[in-house]
Write a structure and sequence with these properties.
Layout (H helix, E strand, L loop, with lengths): L1 E6 L6 H12 L7 E4 L11 H11 L4 E4 L7 H4 L4 E4 L2 E7 L2 E4 L4 E4 L2 E6 L24 H16 L6 E4 L4 H7 L8 H14 L5 E4 L6 E3 L4 E3 L4 E6 L8
Length: 242
Amino acid sequence: MIPVVITGDTHGEYGRLLEIHRRMEQYDTKEKYLLVCGDFGYLFKNDFSEHRLLDEIEQQDYTVVVVPGNHENYNEFMQYDIVDFHGAKAYQVRKNIFYILRGEIFELGTKAFFCMGGGYSIDCYMRQKDVSWWEEEMPTDAEYRHAADNLEAYRTEGKKIDYILSHTAPLSGLRYLKKDHGAEEYPLNNFLEYVQETLGEEYTCHYFGHLHVDEVIPFHRMRALWFDYEELMLPDDKTLEK
């Protein structure tokens, strides 16, 4: 079995990093993954202290997968090489740290994850462009088209999506949680709603961060994550699913 731990915004906090190290140490397996639903934050200021933390993460025996949020230094991580990460295109910022491109699908064991990063900064008027705010935080029309086309192509091959990973929530999640990040984010919220409706009963759960709340939304198969962790033990062989 492959341990996969999913969490929400970490914002470059050292305390969260220590907690994550301790949590991941409990798994004595060759493969183990931490999935972060945006606002990773250990490559935000792009300064010496952050790179020391990235170096520390690189020494760990687990892999970090980031679905980029709105508080990310897009100018910096998009300079790294794009590589294949289990079927998805990703920026590799360290040997074990990957930022997944929008609309990509990666597979761990027998399970598939559809990723759609991005979100709107409601405090962008207080931030400085390309220093603490980046306009790339929201998807472009081309990225929406790629995400929809990639999802359709993957399923046309007879494959299924097991999990959805995003930074912000679909519209129904916002309504349930009584949250709203403004009309500027609605195109992405609506697109995530479209993804859920397209997949129907196919997916198991949709995980997202952004809203700084920890809550399970069972009837909608969604979970909002911030400090909480979701643990998945994924079969690495289809025979184990029977």
